[in-house]
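Colleagues,

Please find the record for the two-part complex below.
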Amino acid sequence: MRADLFFIKDWIEPQSRVLDLGCGDGSFLALLKQEKNIYDCGLDLDPDNIQKCLQAGVNVIEQDLDKGLANFTDNSFDTVLLTQTLQAVHRPDFLVEEMLRIGKKCIITFPNFAYWRYRYYILAKGRMPVSSDLPFSWYDTPNIHFCTIRDFDELCDERKIKVLDRTVVDDKHRRSILMNLNPNFFGINAIYHITR
Amino acid sequence: MAKQIPENSVGIVRPVCLHFDEPLPLRSGKVIESYDLMVETYGELNDDKSNAILICHALSGDHHAAGYHDPDDEDEKPGWWETCIGPGKPIDSNRFFIVSLNNLGGCAGSTGPESTNPATGKPYGPDFPIVTVRDWVNSQARLADHLGIEQWAAVIGGSLGGMQVMRWAISYPERLRHAVVIAAAPKLSAQNIAFNEVARQSITADPDFHQGHYYEHGTYPKKGLTLARMIGHITYLSENALRGKFGKSSLKGENFGRDLRTGKLNFDFGVDFEVESYLQYKGEAFSSNFDANTYLLITKTLDYFDPAVDYEGDLSKAFEKGSCKFLVISFSSDWRFPPERSREIVNTLLKAKRQVSYLEVESDGGHDAFLLSEPRYLNGLTAYLSVVANESAGTRGADHAS
């Protein structure tokens, strides 16, 4: 399981309604269905992912997050998930607002661009960081809106978004003292549990 | 010598005619006292009758959805949904018991305008009552009763067939586990109705129509029905599909599909372009096998479909009852029922908090893409129905264990 998903699982209530934005191959929703008997709804745009969701018996809707979520009614889900996708949408702030409208609670995970290795990469090489977590070149990356933990905290502050819980992990879903001391410097992946 | 039948075909099938004596009250207030339904089935019904799938046909379809009728006729075309139904195909006859019928008002053997009206002893003709999608589904429910099927594993249909699927989920929410709605719409648009009206006018304006009593006059409104089908056929295909059909011989399709039939302009009002003769051929072929009164009736059935009317115009209220899952599929180049119309269905279902999956297939096939071998469409349908088949197998296993 991907690093960020391991922690999210505990935040999902059994039998609750879960909307996963950019659900990928549906394996996380399938797991939640199996373990927590949730009502599942995934959104994705990639035909291969959609096919895998159908194979897994996961409800999946072909829909482009950048075209909005107006088709979902207020408070129609208990939890809205956005894992490792925030940085790939055109207007992350609009999307976060929409998530908070649709879901009672939301879970957002994203790669922390202020992680010290990325900082070092830019500082030492003077080039955009490329790593196993961020394997793309600047010109073909789907990640167009990188942010840091400090940036996201500020957005929550400005928009009066309540942070219920925040966890910072490395690529092997481990937490450490260093990450607790300075999450914005040592954390690779940020995991936020937010509400309005 | 018997003809070669592909291994993934259901093979030679025999339709049966089932008679129903219980009067069927219709939406219009009229009643059909008794009626026949032509039915074909493929595959085997399992012990607990949990693997049955109902196929709902569209405007020109009938009960013959798959396989062949004549073991000797080498030129015979298979049923209208041969791409989807058969052993190992998306609607797998090795795993499902598949039921396909000719709807009431049809012209392939079920009671319709060509049948004898018991009250007059003459064919019904134009006096055959207008049946709605709801009436069809009520008659299909009686067919399910007759076959001993309490609950369908899935009800599946494209276009007008998809409308019947939605009506099943509304009228009989407990009698299906999955609803597969392909290339459909929650109701017809003004443009859709307009095309239907032109088709109807072409038929009724034919001097051989005789107000629908052409059987008694020994005539047939062939010209009118041909014209109606030509108009319909244009709306079933995309511009690119037509371009591809008649532009391949020219360089990179830059001729926009405008291939000439004889290679030169004739400077008269005859046929110049290939698309003209193609449409005439399609229209004429159709009109020799289809009843004009049925065509009129079914275009009305389409126009009248609007299940939201009983729910103050809010279709999501219609879908509040029941727990069946939905699979909705649309095709990018379908301009009769374009993807936006399917998304309306999906959004309505989401509003009703129903379980739904949605697939928007990139295709040049237009509305008719649902009858074609579009790989993504067939793969998606296969994946979805394979989960359905496993559920049916699971229920049976559980029952045997208890």
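Residues 92-102 of chain A form the longest helix (11 residues).

Comments are welcome before we finalize the supplementary table.
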